[in-house]
Amino acid sequence: MEREEAVRRIGQIVGQDLRKLAETYEVTVIREGKKNKGWAGHVIERYLGLPINSAQSPNFGSWELKTVSLRRLKNGSLSVKETMAITMIDPYNVVATSFEESHLFAKLRKAVIAARIWVSQDEPSSILHAVTTFDLDDVDVYNQVKEDYELVRNIIRNQGFEALSGKLGSYIQPRTKGPGHGSTSRAFYARTGFLKKFIFPHLTSR
User: Fold this and answer.
1) CB–CB of 156/95 below 8 Å?
2) How many CA atoms lie within 13 A of 30 on its CB side?
3) End-to-end CA distance of the chain
């Protein structure tokens, strides 16, 4: 599916409750008290007629689908709620791979971003707010993301995988991913500052 067509089709369900669509497309949101954090993206994938994708290559061959959670502030305005997971970090692969050939670059190079409104932890509802596109084509942004990636490569190479910390990176941070604080897996995340500066304005202007 071409990216433009996906944006058009996702736009047709903007304003709808993804929680209700999860039931329609048989996507599990909460099971035995544990939440499927990727449920909203899975709903949209099912809506587009594609199987749920967790591979490190882009969802749709040339572009990637990502979801961003927004929360409503006391004054009624919307803001980015949290960081956005991009891709898992395989230490061997990261050290051996240049930025231009990396999974991180592949995931960010050409993306569709769908924003949903988060209500509470039990996810009683979640309205799809907007959809937009993102391309990693701004030179300054590209260079900073590449610098963040190279920092992670150097840390792994010189200090080890365990030395990675969420404190690293200006736009992209390497952070633990998985249940509990004892998780040993890590992933690249887009910081909220990155989302607020380069993605959020396009979601709220539509």
Assistant:
1) yes
2) 10
3) 23
Strands (E), the chain: 30-31, 34-35, 64-72, 78-80, 84-88, 110-117, 128-135, 172-176, 186-190
pTM: 0.90
pLDDT tens string 93-103: 999 999 999 99
- Tokens representing residue 186 in the block: 């890590």
Nearest 10 degrees: Cα torsion 83, 52, 134, 35: -20
Within 8 A by CB and 6+ apart from 92, the residues are none
Sign of CA dihedral 107, 123, 181, 70: positive
Work out the widest C-alpha separation in the chain, in whole angstroms.
49
Domains of the chain in start order, with CATH, are 3-204 (3.40.600.10)
The H or E element that residue 140 is part of is helix 139-159
Provide the total of helices (H) and of strands (E) in the chain, helices listed first: 8, 9
Question: Which residue is it, tokens 């840390």?
Answer: 155
d(CA 121, CA 177): 18
